[in-house]
Amino acid sequence: MKSGSKDGNMVAEMIKAGQIVPSEVTVNLLLDAMRASPRDKFLIDGFPRNQENRDAWERTAGYDCDFVLFFDCPEEVMEKRLLSRGETSGRTDDNIESIKKRFKTFVESSVPVVDYYRGLSKVREVMSDQPPEEVYAQTKAHFAHFA
User: Fold this and answer.
1) Where are the alpha helices (DSSP H) in the chain?
2) Where are the domains of the chain?
3) Can you tell me the mean pLDDT for 13-26?
4) Tens digit of pLDDT for each residue in 24-34?
5) FRET pair for 67, CA 20 to 30 Å: which of 43, 104, 138, 140?
6) Phi, psi (5° rounding) for residue 101?
7) Contacts by residues 14-20 (CB-CB < 8 Å, ≥ 24 positions apart)
8) What is the mean pLDDT of the chain?
9) Which positions ≥6 away from 92 have C-beta within 8 Å?
10) Of the ranges 42-51, 93-102, 114-123, the best mean pLDDT one
11) Coiled coil where (predicted)?
12) Quick one: DSSP state of residue 99?
């Protein structure tokens, strides 16, 4: 998606406000990228974020996931990391107001989706408040059978 395009501006504003991008836009962007790739396995970061995303994906994509990788982390650790990132990232949503909105949106919209996949025994969890090396080792272990 091009910066400055109609969709690009809409997505940027929604992200800044801590809101979720419409499912149709997200699913179509993902599918376009997947179709353009010669690969047949994909790691999709941060999706689905809500029930609407999940429904749109299942209706449109025709793909099922092997598993959901969930990085669990205490809110205070995430807040500290995001504020630190904001000092150098240039991201407009790395400020305390946007971060708090994103946490609220996550709990209300994303946790039920994680719980859905947990009910299907598809969630693999990594406690990500640990040192990066440990988080990496745990994450890598979840992908070992794909190698």
Assistant:
1) 6-16, 23-36, 51-60, 75-89, 96-105, 111-119, 132-142
2) 1-64, 67-130
3) 84
4) 888 988 898 89
5) 104
6) -65, -40
7) 15/92, 15/93, 16/92, 16/93, 16/98, 17/98, 17/101, 18/93, 18/98, 18/99, 18/100, 18/101, 18/102, 18/104, 18/105, 19/101, 19/105, 20/49, 20/50, 20/53, 20/105, 20/109
8) 90
9) 12, 15, 16, 98
10) 114-123
11) none
12) H
pLDDT of residue 2: 54
CA distance 107 to 5: 30
**What's the Cα-to-Cα distance from 70 to each of 41, 78, 110, 111, rounded to whole Å?**
18, 14, 11, 10
Q: What is the pLDDT of residue 132?
A: 95
Rg (CA), the chain: 16
Residue 5 has pLDDT above 80, yes or no: no
